Task: inverse folding
């Protein structure tokens, strides 16, 4: 093989590698976009169920790992307190999002919202585990002076 043909083969191989890398990154971006969309939709469903007082359905639909770290009773008490003290959701404005993939665990999407309730406001952080295109609640935090003061 001549030096020119080796250089040509190396260039072709390098180009093929570059194209493969671009295609792989495009695939993961599309997946991340779908995962974030699934998580956003799940936030809307969470708020609807919170407003309806359907806390047990939220707990049952949560990721199994969430159910191993908190009991249904404790989860229900938290959501009931939020609903009782802050009221119904009036507006939820997404502020930040992040998607991460972990080997053997899949994708998690973290969404942070500034949420206005009928009786106050707070910053909510949702962590969703995405499995087969479905978002399951993996973690939930709320930061609200109104919740503490009432």
Result:
């Amino acid at each position: 093989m001549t030096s020119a043909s080796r250089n040509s083969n190396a260039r072709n191989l390098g180009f093929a590698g570059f194209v493969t890398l671009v295609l792989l990154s495009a695939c993961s971006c599309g997946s991340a976009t779908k995962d974030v969309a699934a998580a956003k939709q799940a936030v809307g469903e969470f708020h609807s169920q919170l407003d309806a007082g359907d806390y047990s359905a939220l707990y049952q639909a949560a990721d199994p790992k969430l159910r191993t770290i908190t009991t249904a009773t404790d989860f229900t008490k938290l959501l009931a307190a939020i609903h009782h003290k802050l009221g119904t959701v009036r507006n939820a404005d997404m502020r930040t999002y992040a998607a991460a993939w972990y080997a053997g665990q899949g994708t998690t999407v973290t969404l942070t919202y500034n949420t206005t309730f009928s009786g106050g406001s707070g910053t909510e952080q949702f962590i969703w585990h995405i499995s087969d295109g479905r978002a399951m609640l993996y973690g939930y935090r709320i930061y609200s002076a109104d919740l503490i003061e009432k």
